[in-house]
Amino acid sequence: MSLLSKNQRAGSGISEQAAQIAKQAVPAAKNAGTIAAQQTIPIAKTAGASVKQGADVAVAWAMPYIGAARHKAAPWLEQSAVTVRENIAPMISDALITAAHKIDYVEPKQRRLITKARVVAGSVVLTAAGAAAAVSLRNRRSNGNGITAGSPMASPAEPAASAGSMTDGYSSAEPTAPDAEANGYPPTT
Predict the structure, then answer these.
(1) Are 161 and 146 in contact (CB under 8 A)?
(2) 144 C-beta neighbours (distance < 10 Å), count
(3) Is 113 left (phi over 0), alpha (psi -120 to 50) or beta?
(4) 61-117 per-position pLDDT tens digit
(5) 154 vs 172: CA distance, rounded Å
(6) Which residue of 24, 88, 150, 169 could cross-link 145, Cys pair, CB 3.0 to 4.6 Å?
(7) H or E segment to which residue 170 belongs
(8) Closest Cα to residue 29, out of 18, 17, 39, 21?
(9) pLDDT tens readout for residues 109-154
């Protein structure tokens, strides 16, 4: 007989015994569970009532102490509130206002840049002013030696038109000596 067949027979005997024990243990475990449940249900019901009764006793014992503690704490709490309102709250408020001013964003004013249109408009105005000045000078020269009848350079005794024939600002008459009074000097005699 081989070693393998002996082990198989020995193993089959043990497994049969284990199966029989398991078959007996299952009903015993079920019975034990039902018995334990039947015993614990009344205990649990009485435990709930016991806990409630114990809590009621603890509340009755603690109520006078709680009342005394509240009686002592109320003035302290009120004084703390007054202190916070008068001392700490203004400091916190000032700190919050300062922080708000620091983080406030003010949009920078936009600088007006000189645009091409403004440059062109300015150039047109300057050109027109220059042209007007040139036309005015040309008209003065054509009226006679650059001196008009109403100008301060004209002599009151002779109007500009009667100065003789003028060409290019020079008179055809003989030049005369300069007038001394015109230069701010008295005449010499």
Answers:
(1) no
(2) 20
(3) beta
(4) 888 888 888 888 999 999 999 988 899 899 999 999 999 988 888 777 777 767 888
(5) 18
(6) 169
(7) strand 170-171
(8) 21
(9) 777 767 888 888 999 999 999 999 999 998 888 876 555 555 555 4
Write the DSSP assignment of 17-28 as a string of letters: HHHHHHHHHHHH
Q: 60: which 2 tokens?
A: 């009755």
- How far, in Å, CA of 98 to CA of 91, rounded? 10
> Read out DSSP for 77-120?
HHHHHHHIIIIIHHHHHHHHHHHHHHH---PPPPP-PPPHHHHH
- pLDDT tens digits, one per residue of 148-180: 555 555 454 444 444 444 455 555 555 555 555
Backbone φ and ψ for 167, nearest 5 degrees, come out as: -135, 130
Measured distance CA(155)–CA(147) in Å, rounded: 10
Tokens of 121: 């408009």
User: Residue ranges per domain, the chain?
Assistant: 15-100
For residue 121, which amino acid is it?
A
Alpha-carbon separation of residue 134 from 129, 138, 163 (angstroms): 9, 6, 25
Give the Cα separation of 155 and 37 in Å (integer). Answer: 144
